[in-house]
Amino acid sequence: MFEVLSEKLGKIFSRLGNRGKLTEKDIDEAMREVRLALLEADVNFKVVKDFTTRVKERAIGKEVMESLSPAQQLIKIVNEELIKTLGDGQGSRLVSASPPPAIIMMVGLQGSGKTTTAAKLALLMKHNGQKPLLVAADNRRPAAIEQLITLGKQLEVPVFSEDPKTASKDISAHGLAEARRIAATHVIIDTAGRLHVDEEMMAELEQVKKILSPHEVLLVVDAMTGQDAVRVAEEFHARVNVTGLILTKMDGDARGGAALSIRWVSGVPIKFIGSGEKVDAFEPFYPDRLASRILGMGDVLTFIEKAEKTIDEKKALELQQKIRKSGFDLEDFLEQLKAIKKMGPIAQLAEMLPGMSKITSKLPDGAQEAQLKKVEAIVLAMTPQERQNPSIIGGSRRKRIASGSGTKIHDVNQLLNQFGQMQKLMKMGMRGKLPKNLMGMFQ
Ligand SMILES: Nc1nc2c(ncn2[C@@H]2O[C@H](COP(=O)(O)OP(=O)(O)OP(=O)(O)O)[C@@H](O)[C@H]2O)c(=O)[nH]1
Ligand SMILES: [Mg+2]
Q1: Which residues are paired to 107 by β-bridges?
Q2: Ligand minimally distant from the alpha carbon of residue 136
Q3: Which of 6, 207, 412, 424 is 20 to 30 A from 98 via CA?
Q4: From the alpha carbon of 147, which atom of ligand 1 is closest?
């Protein structure tokens, strides 16, 4: 899911990843591209406008985090605003009922996945130690009743059904009585869909709703239908007051327009997502997880989180000042190496950085760690004076350092050269952000 959008966003951010500093123009340009990518992904234009405005305001409004590079900061903001768009703070928990059973009504258009999803939901509940009852209240097609009975047998979840001539509202009422009788914790009512939102269906749903007073009215929508799904949600909500959305067929949705627009436009929270025909292809909806899937940057966000935790802000500030005074030496470098090591395996960290995977994939597994150890050994073999003032390290000192660290003179030369370049860059004002600069030493 979201392949197309993820790929585009990935490209936009990896381009930014090479910049030392982002200007307002850089941000404007990046956001223009993000806007296009979202529109091409069929995201509602109002949602896109709102989203990009919020990100821009925050990005230009300088929320500076010293331990992150400018591009990472922008990714952080984009991620947080994506989460907000998808439904911040709204859990996927269903309302519980006391006394049980909780009454859940499944509504939606024909073929959206109501029956399948009712069964998936029942299975999830069963796994959570609850006791659901499925009710086949879709009497428009005899096959619909059979479909639910078959699913129930397969999952070992009881199904209540009646002669299809019985009115849907009556089947629902009898189903509820049965749920009470068997002490079910939840009763899930499968209703009939129509090809389009029409008066007959809405009237029927209103009737069932009036009789049941459900705790939840869950609207099942097909994510692959994009903005149509969003319109359907608005129409249903206006008429039957939907309490939650379930997006199905996310597995077939490469664009993600419905997922990204529906909550913002309809105001109804997404509670679950379906991602396959199998009964276990179903999960509670977590906005943060989906946002990171959309950003599609492996775990760049985990990296940001780790960096936030690991690199002490104050230390980072001290470092910044040192760099500004061009006093950055190999002692500081060693400190940074240690900070990086604390964050975890370097190959794993590198993968989390946009664009980095391209470089690191060239190196065999474990090569970066080996390289990191080598660099550390070389620095450790130096005297404190040498670390503070690398320019005194001449030929004989290089030889001594190489043998002291178990490396070759060539390695020492390479490290000193790269360190010299890094210092120059820092003097030029390209502020040293880690671990990006360090990564340069392993290329
Ligand atoms: N790939 C995929 N297919 C799904 C998903 N959810 C449902 N389907 C398929 O969608 C088709 C329709 O599902 P149903 O559950 O019968 O839909 P419905 O809303 O009950 O349809 P009606 O009863 O006719 O109104 C079936 O072939 C399901 O297997 C999903 O998350 N992913
Ligand atoms: Mg059905």
Answers
A1: 219
A2: 2
A3: 207
A4: 16
Pocket of ligand 1, beta carbon within 6 A: 108, 110-116, 138, 144, 193, 248-249, 251-252, 274-277, 281
The residues placing their C-beta within 5 Å of ligand 2, an ion, are: 114-115, 144
Domain boundary among 89, 111, 139: 89
As a residue count, the chain comes to 443
Residue span of the structural domain in which 371 resides: 300-440
- Which ligand 1 atom is at minimum distance from the Cα of 144? 23
Residue 292 domain flag: no
Question: Which atom from ligand 1 is nearest to the alpha carbon of 110?
Answer: 25
Which pLDDT belongs to residue 430? 42
3-class secondary structure, 218: strand
Write down which residue in 230, 251, 286 finishes a domain. Answer: 286
Are 125 and 174 contained in the same domain? yes
pLDDT 10s digits, 418-439:
777 766 656 554 444 444 444 4
- Give me the mean pLDDT over the 71-82 stretch: 87
Pairing of strands 159-160, 186-190: unpaired
Structure-token match 């529906």, residue found: 262
Mean pLDDT for all residues in the chain:
82
Tens of pLDDT, residues 261-317: 999 999 999 999 999 999 989 988 888 888 888 886 544 556 666 666 555 556 666
d(CA 372, CA 346): 8
pLDDT the model gives residue 344 = 55
CATH number for the domain that contains residue 71: 1.20.120.140
Alpha helix stretches (DSSP H) within 199-282: 199-212, 227-240, 257-266
d(C-alpha 192, C-alpha 202), whole Å = 10
Q: Mutation test of ligand 1: which of 277, 278, 279, 282 has the most ligand atoms closer than 8 Å to its C-beta? A: 277
Is residue 120 in a domain?
Answer: yes
What does the pLDDT look like over 322-375, one tens digit per residue?
655 656 678 777 776 666 666 555 545 444 444 444 444 445 556 666 777 888
